[in-house]
């Protein structure tokens, strides 16, 4: 068994003539927090979409915990223990906070027809258990929200929605969490608070690995163990934040060449 | 179709507003069903409009809503008793009972469409075709001597489900408008098929045998308190009970993980897939169970009117069913009851409207979508066990 939880081997994705991801190889160690950074359009979200099975890869392969999960369906990837948040919030706005979080707990819910329509006692038991669990998870992010579990998410401000989205991802106790620009649309302080909360949850469980896509370099510097930098679909640098920040090619990619 | 009304958690409400609503609706329906003169009907419609406005602007409506969610089970039972009471008071009147039962069966059909359309977001423009499939099944099996009529009802549902199975593959493979077009095509094909098929009576249609339960022949007029009741009385009572049973299951489905997954699939397929929800399973389950209900409703409808023809199950009838769901509120089972009453009773009661019924419904649907996009009785946020500690 290798030490890496996730491995991209020569991953390539082409959309027609555009090569969004070009021969991208990288790995993620167990328990690591990896920052995936790069200018807009450099292939960060695309790699998330390939990893979670939303897009098929044009070439290369993805290994999760030693198993080839290239082009597996989103469901299989979720069952393997990979969950994500989205760049643009993808919550179900008319549904309650509790409902939205339960969408993330599919693997544990009993979804048989008889179990749901006839065995209401057993259903109720599971409902009550999951309610408490969801509520205590939400409470780590915001005590205020924990008392409003039955209110629709659509009525909440952006920061609260992002918290719910992260709770939805964490409720199934995943092994790998993919965060796609968690700071988008939030203030500096809000982002800071959110990161603290995520680290808190991570510290309680065992060995949650995180890949974070982020433009806010303060966040990357603060929480990542290691960074991978993409530009035009290619990996141009890898190393600690200080190392990649000092890299000449990275500076060119972000700031342009004088 | 966007936001769902928020229940402001306040002090627990009593059952009184709910009971008064049931009483009012029961007396109102009774009056509407026996009203014959145009001015009486107009007056009753004006009264309904006044009550709705009053309910919206004085907060009475919210009181009823709160009362209902606090005491849902007894009040639902109360509603059933209310319907049965209306049926009993009208027991010797053919036409009002026929109207009432038709409303109940359209309400039942709307429950099926609601699972497909309201919960899962699969528009079904072939509702009348599946309803008709149930009715034709009843006609065919009803003529088989040894086949128990109660099973005929189930068979109607199963045949509609089996036809749905044929459609499910193209529907699951397409989304949105394209899936809707698939159902339109099927609805049109189905009617054409009936018209050319000699075994099923062609354009002339078929006779349907009446419903029979052991010791209860629906063709006989029962005697109640020394008075001979209409034979429609049988169907009205049976339909009311059937609707109550299926309503309970639809509610359970909504308030279970299955219903949650249906909502998730409707609102965001990509996100649902990323959290392990099987899109195909959810859609197939929704489509087939919706069809099962449509078929059962159609089978009983066929047995009641005892004669069916392809012209009873046209594309416009399908549109009518979809407009019931839209009018009542997507995903709102009770909304379907109100909308079914409007759609079935209004043109029958106001003869002058008969010719213009489709125009009327088109205008009505547009008005509702413009001014009350969530329907007449918008769906409430999912509460798995209403009446229990709210929000725990």
Characterise this structure.
Chain A: Keywords: ATP-binding, Nucleotide-binding, Transport. Chain A: InterPro entries: AAA+_ATPase, ABC_AA/LPS_Transport, ABC_transporter-like_ATP-bd, BCA_ABC_TP_C, P-loop_NTPase. Chain A: GO terms for molecular function: ATP binding; ATP hydrolysis activity; L-isoleucine transmembrane transporter activity; L-phenylalanine transmembrane transporter activity; L-valine transmembrane transporter activity. Chain A: Residues 6-257 form the ABC transporter domain. The complex is a heterodimer of chains A (258) and B (392). Chain A is of the alpha/beta class. Chain A folds into 2 domains: 1-81 and 175-258, Rossmann fold (3-Layer(aba) Sandwich); 95-173, no CATH class. Helix content of chain A is 40%, strand content 24%. Chain A has 11 helices and 10 strands. A 6-stranded mixed sheet of chain A has the order 6-7-8-3-9-10, sandwiched between helices. Chain A has a 4-stranded antiparallel sheet with strand order 2-1-4-5, with helices on one face. Chain A is globular, with a radius of gyration of 19 Å. The model of chain A has no long low-confidence stretch (mean pLDDT 91). Chain B has 2 domains: 14-89, no CATH class; 93-371, no CATH class. Helix content of chain B is 69%, strand content 3%. Chain B has a two-stranded antiparallel sheet with strand order 1-6. Chain B has a two-stranded antiparallel sheet with strand order 2-3. In chain B, strands 4-5 form a two-stranded antiparallel sheet. In chain B, strand 4 (223-224) and strand 5 form a beta hairpin. The two termini of chain B are 27 Å apart. The model of chain B is unreliable at 1-10 (pLDDT under 50).
């Amino acid at each position: 068994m290798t030490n890496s939880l996730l491995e991209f081997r020569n991953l390539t994705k082409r959309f027609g003539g555009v090569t969004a991801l070009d021969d991208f190889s990288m790995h993620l160690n167990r328990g690591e927090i990896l920052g995936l950074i790069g200018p807009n359009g450099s292939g960060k979200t695309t790699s998330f979409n390939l990893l979670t099975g939303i897009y098929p890869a044009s070439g290369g392969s993805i290994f999760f915990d030693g198993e080839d999960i290239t082009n597996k369906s989103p469901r299989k990837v979720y069952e393997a223990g990979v969950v994500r948040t989205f760049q643009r919030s993808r919550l179900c706005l008319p549904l309650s906070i509790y409902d939205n979080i339960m969408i993330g707990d599919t693997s544990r819910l009993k979804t048989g027809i008889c179990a749901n329509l006839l065995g209401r006692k057993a259903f109720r038991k599971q409902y009550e258990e999951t309610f408490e669990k969801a509520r205590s998870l939400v409470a780590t992010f915001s005590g205020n929200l924990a008392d409003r579990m039955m209110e629709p998410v659509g009525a909440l401000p952006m920061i609260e929605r992002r918290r719910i989205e992260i709770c939805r991802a964490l409720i199934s106790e995943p092994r790998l969490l993919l965060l796609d620009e968690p700071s988008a649309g939030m203030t500096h302080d809000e982002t800071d608070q959110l990161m603290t909360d995520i680290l808190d949850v991570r510290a309680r469980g065992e060995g949650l690995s995180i890949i974070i896509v982020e433009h806010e370099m303060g966040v990357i510097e603060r929480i990542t163990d290691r960074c991978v930098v993409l530009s035009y679909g290619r990996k141009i640098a890898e190393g600690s934040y200080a190392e990649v920040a000092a890299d000449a090619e990275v500076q060119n990619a972000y700031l342009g060449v004088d | 179709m966007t936001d769902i009304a928020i229940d402001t958690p306040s002090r627990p409400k009593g059952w009184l507003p709910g009971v008064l609503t049931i009483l009012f609706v029961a007396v109102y329906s009774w009056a509407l069903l026996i009203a014959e003169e145009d001015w009486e009907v107009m007056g009753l419609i004006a009264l309904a409009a006044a009550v709705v406005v009053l309910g919206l602007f004085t907060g009475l409506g919210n009181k009823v809503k709160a009362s209902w969610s606090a005491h849902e089970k007894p009040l639902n039972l109360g509603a059933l008793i209310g319907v049965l009471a209306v049926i009993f008071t009208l027991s010797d009147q053919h036409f009002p009972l026929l109207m009432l039962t038709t409303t109940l069966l359209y309400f039942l059909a709307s429950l099926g469409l609601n699972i497909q359309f309201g919960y899962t977001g699969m528009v079904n423009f072939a509702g009348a075709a599946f309803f008709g499939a149930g009715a034709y099944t009843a006609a065919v099996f009803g003529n088989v001597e040894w086949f128990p009529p109660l099973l005929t009802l189930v068979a109607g549902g199963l045949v509609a489900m089996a036809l749905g199975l044929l459609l499910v593959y193209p529907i699951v493979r397409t989304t949105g408008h394209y899936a809707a077009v698939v159902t339109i095509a099927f609805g049109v094909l189905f009617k054409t098929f009936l018209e050319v098929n000699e075994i099923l009576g062609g354009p002339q249609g078929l006779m349907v045998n009446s419903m029979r339960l052991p010791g209860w022949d629906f063709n006989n007029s029962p005697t109640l308190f020394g008075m001979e009741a209409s034979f429609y009385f049988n169907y009205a009572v049976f339909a009311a009970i059937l609707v109550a049973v299926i309503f309970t299951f639809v509610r359970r489905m909504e308030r279970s993980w299955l219903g949650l997954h249906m909502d998730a699939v409707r609102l965001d397929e990509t996100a649902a897939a990323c959290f392990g929800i099987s899109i195909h399973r959810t859609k197939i389950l929704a489509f087939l169970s919706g069809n099962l209900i449509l078929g059962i409703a159609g089978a009983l409808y066929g047995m009641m009117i005892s004669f069916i023809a392809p012209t009873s199950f046209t594309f416009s009838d399908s549109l009518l069913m979809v407009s019931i769901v839209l009018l009542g509120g997507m995903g709102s089972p009770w909304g379907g009851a109100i909308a079914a009453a409007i759609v079935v009773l209004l043109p029958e009661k106001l003869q002058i409207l008969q010719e213009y019924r489709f125009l009327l419904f088109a205008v009505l649907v547009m008005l509702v979508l413009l001014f009350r996009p969530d329907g007449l009785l918008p769906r409430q946020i999912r509460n798995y066990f209403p009446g229990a500690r709210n929000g725990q």
